[in-house]
Structures are given as C-alpha cells and as structure tokens.
Amino acid sequence: MDKRMSIDDVIDRIPDSATIAIGGSSISRKPMALVRALARSDKRDLTVIVDVGGPDVDLLLGTGRVKRIIYAFVGFEVLGLAPHFRRARQEATAEFQEWTEYTVMAGLDATIKRVPFMPTHATLGTDVLAVNPAFKEIRDPFGQEPLVAVPALAPDVALIHVNYADVQGNGVILGDGHVDVLCAKAAKATYMSCERILSSEELQRFGRDVQILRVYSKGVVEVPWGAHPTGCAPDYRTDLRHLQEYLKAAQSEDGWRRYETEFVQVDHRQYLENHGGPEELVSRLKV
C-alpha cells in the first residue's frame, strides 16, 4: 500500500480539538515542516503532548493553535527559555499539565497496553503530585506499598520525523529514537515526514534502525530538511543561528510578525529558499 502524501494532506486530516503527540526531543529531530504547516493552518483548540518540547510547542503557542499542553519540559536547551511558552504560562492563555519524562512515556505505554493507567513509583515524594491532579496516589492491592497511577495518554494523531521511510510507512530513525515509537504506537493515526523515501529493499538493510513499522503509520511525506531548524542526526546539525533569530524575533510583536511572514506563512520550498536554499544549509549544517 502506497502511503505517500503531501504536507497539506496530513494537515487536512487533523481536526480541530485534536490531541497531537509530537516526536523528537527539544531541538532534536522535531517534525518542524509539519508543525509549521499546522501553525499556519486554521486548526484550533489543540492538545499537544510532548516529552521534551522545543520550537515545535513554542511555535504552535505563538500562532494560537494550542488549548492544552501535556509536557515534561519545554525550552531551547543552551539557548534558553521558550518565549511563547513562558508568556502563555505566565498569562495562563493555555492549560498546562506538568508531567515528567518518564510519566509521559508511561501514559503513552498505558494506551499501547490498553489499560486506563500505569502504576509507577515515579513522582512519589515530589511536588509533581501537588501540581498535577491527573495523577493519583494508590496502594498496591497485593503488597500495599504506595504507588502513583499515571493516566493513559491517547493521542488522536502523532507527528514524527525520521531519516528514511518507504512508501509502505516503515521508518528509519538513526540515533536516539526519543519517544517516537511510543507516540506512533499510541496514536490513532501516525504521520511521518522523512528526509528521503527509499525502496523497501533498501530500507530493510537498516535492520533495527527501522523503528517505525508500517502497521502504525497512516501517511509518509518526503520532506528534505523537514526537521529544520532542529537537528536530524546524522544528516544535519541543529541550526543554532536560526534559533537565535527566532528567539530575538519573539521578543516583540513586530519582530514576530516579520518572522511569521518569512518562515511560517510560506510553504516548505519557500522556507528553504528564505534560508538561502538547500545548498546554503548544506554548507553550514551538514555533518
């Protein structure tokens, strides 16, 4: 079955008020071409689930697409805080649920295992229980030890970016898989962007790096530089220069409007041209 589609095809399949799990981690291998398309769409009241968020979450908040966020951390690592996330948090313009990296994984795993919650020792003795009413303290029915019940996280859609894919929806992730496999398995519909589509025969040569199996994916989009400005190891590094420009633009309304015009309200081809074209990105960011 040929699952190839366009970026617009993917966005058309995401309804208002959908719960979307986004793969990658912080400024690493985020499906940014898909996220930008979602940001310039008219989708509303989205719930976003991330283990570690970065410019993906910040951009969706900055363009007013998000109603609720379930997250362990959102930031730009060495570059500092996420400006739209911080502003929304301070002004309470969205709903925020603070989880931990492990509990996000446990919530996704509960959905995969078809159980309503996952019992864990994680967060016991921490303030997470005080700030997150979604978690419940329970007792082990056999040994009576204290546990925490982490509710299942059931995304409607997962958006992930992989290095390579085939037309059937198998995906290769080179390096750290982050939570992408959990997102793909837990979501009702998973859509992948990839750097390049290969034949199924070529793809199978990657062995265990074929981390996303076709039974979990609904669509595949070939998008070279689809994770930019986040990195996609080993293909290219994170574009720290562009992220610094993003952070500077987000400091003012005028700056942010200019950034949106140049880098959000354009298709992926024009987005690359506005960076000087793929050749310029290759010269700066290819490993």
Keyword list:
alpha/beta, 287 residues, Glutaconate Coenzyme A-transferase, 33% helix, 22% strand
Polypeptide structure, described:
With 287 residues, this protein is an alpha/beta fold. The chain has a single domain, classed as Glutaconate Coenzyme A-transferase (3-Layer(aba) Sandwich). 33% of the residues lie in helices and 22% in strands. The chain has twelve helices and 14 strands. The chain has helices at residues 7-12, 32-39, 55-62, 83-91, 101-112, 128-131, 180-186, 200-204, 240-249, 253-264, 268-273, 278-285, and strands spanning 19-22, 46-49, 52-53, 66-71, 73-74, 95-98, 117-120, 136-139, 146-151, 157-165, 171-172, 189-197, 210-212, 219-222. Strands 1, 2, 4, 6, 10, 11, 12, 13 and 14 form a nine-stranded mixed sheet that branches. The chain is globular, with a radius of gyration of 19 Å. The protein starts with 6 loop residues before the first helix and ends with a helix. The model has no long low-confidence stretch (mean pLDDT 97).
Helix content: 25-40%
Taken as a percent bin, the fraction of beta residues is: 15-25%
CATH class: Alpha Beta
Task: Report the principal-axis shape.
Answer: globular
Largest sheet: 9 strands, mixed
**SSE string, helices as H and strands as E:** HEHEEHEEHEHEHEEEEHEHEEHHHH
CATH architecture: 3-Layer(aba) Sandwich
Rg to the nearest angstrom?
19 Å
- Provide the structure class: alpha/beta
Q: Give the uncertain stretches in residue-range form.
A: none
CATH topology: Glutaconate Coenzyme A-transferase
Terminal Cα separation, in Å? 34 Å
How many domains would you count in the coordinates? 1
The chain-level mean pLDDT equals 97
Q: Give the total of beta strands.
A: 14
Number of helices, counting only DSSP H or I runs of 4 residues or more: 12
